[in-house]
Specification:
Elements: H1 16-29, H2 39-53, H3 61-89, H4 93-104, H5 107-122, H6 126-133, H7 146-192, H8 205-230, H9 232-241, H10 249-262, E1 266-267, E2 270-272, E3 275-277, E4 281-282, H11 292-324
Antiparallel strand pairs: 1-4, 2-3
Subcellular location: Cell membrane
Organism: Rheinheimera aquimaris
Keywords: Cell membrane, Cobalamin biosynthesis, Membrane, Transmembrane, Transmembrane helix
Length: about 325
């Protein structure tokens, strides 16, 4: 591609970072409503598939593991094969990359849902806020207090930021649109078949294990971004002072860094299927309040900006290197 002053665009330089910046901007300015998001169809398919192949969660554990693994393949492989076939006929693969990335970036619709719930809490509509929060939370919401609901939303926003934004961006830079949407489909299956629900305790374990492996690096990077912004030493000390119990290690580090950034307590016991489960309690002087939801959104958005600047900076360095050599 010719450029001014006789400069030519290096063929070795990936266009993905530039596409990423443009698509993130488009998703920020024109977020797709959650009800019309392309992933809604995949969620419905995953739910119906689970109903067919997991009709009895009381079956032997080994059978549930096997059926869960096969369901993961049945849900993921055909979707990826169909999308891959589109690349074989597309004359504009970069445009297809951009569309798949846009479909995978549903973080902004999640952010909007959380902000609407905050407005309900600020106007005293706790019952309505609990109902709206069901789409974002796996735990039981009907008995949550305002503080408990706020804390749950802060944790959900933090974890979804890592898996639904940071992870998708990294997958896109490394593997293009197909890699980004493939990663996102795995995390979606983990959400739909969450082992924290009784009916998916064993059936959803394979999808959860794969999603945990894929999201480990995004969670660690998100933890580092938050720590750099709000104090590496304070975040490290909070991680050291808190015992990691009944929670994924990478998620634990991320929640500790978020707690240090917000200066609010996170973690603690949760209710799944009506049963109380103990978790690590990340202690701070103050408990969360409803206005912290918007603070969390702002903090996470700033960490996203950090990540995009790093990606853009790396791309520019690669360009300079290519031009000099």
């Amino acid at each position: 591609m010719p450029w001014p002053l006789g400069i030519t665009w290096p063929s070795e330089l990936s266009a993905h970072p530039a596409i990423l910046l443009l698509v993130v901007l488009a998703a920020r300015l024109i977020p797709m409503p959650a009800a019309y998001h392309p992933l809604m169809l995949f969620r419905y398919f995953a739910q119906q598939l689970a109903a067919k192949v997991n009709p009895d969660p009381e079956r032997p554990r080994q059978q549930l593991y096997i059926s869960g693994s096969l369901a993961l393949l049945v849900a993921w492989l055909p979707a990826m094969a169909l999308l891959y076939s589109l690349y074989q006929f597309s004359e504009l693969p970069l445009v297809l990359d951009a569309l798949l990335l846009y479909a995978g970036l549903d973080w902004y619709s999640t952010q909007q849902q959380a902000q609407k719930i905050q407005q309900r809490l600020l106007t005293g509509q706790l019952t309505l806020a609990r109902e709206q929060a069901k789409s974002l939370l796996c735990r039981k919401t009907s008995t949550l207090s305002e503080m408990g609901l706020t804390k749950a939303l802060l944790e959900s926003l933090t974890l979804r930021s890592a898996s639904h934004f940071v992870g998708v961006c990294l997958a896109f830079v490394l593997a293009g649109g197909l890699g980004a949407i493939g990663y996102r489909l795995v995390t979606e299956l983990q959400q739909q078949w969450n082992p924290k629900r009784d009916q998916y305790r064993y059936f959803g374990a394979p999808a959860s294990a794969l999603a945990g492996l894929l999201t480990a690096i995004p969670k660690c990077i998100s933890s580092l971004l938050l720590a750099i912004q709000h104090g590496v030493l304070r975040s490290y000390q909070l991680c050291r002072a808190t015992h990691c119990f009944n929670i994924n290690r990478c998620s634990f580090w991320l929640l500790c860094c978020a707690s240090a950034a917000l200066r609010r307590s996170l973690g603690g016991p949760v209710y799944y299927n009506g049963l109380k489960q103990q978790r690590s309690k990340i202690k701070q002087p103050n408990e969360p309040v409803a206005t912290d939801i918007q603070r969390a959104v702002s903090i996470l958005q700033f960490s996203h900006l950090y990540l995009l600047l790093v990606i853009a900076g790396g791309s520019l360095l690669q360009l300079v290197w290519q031009l000099k050599h």
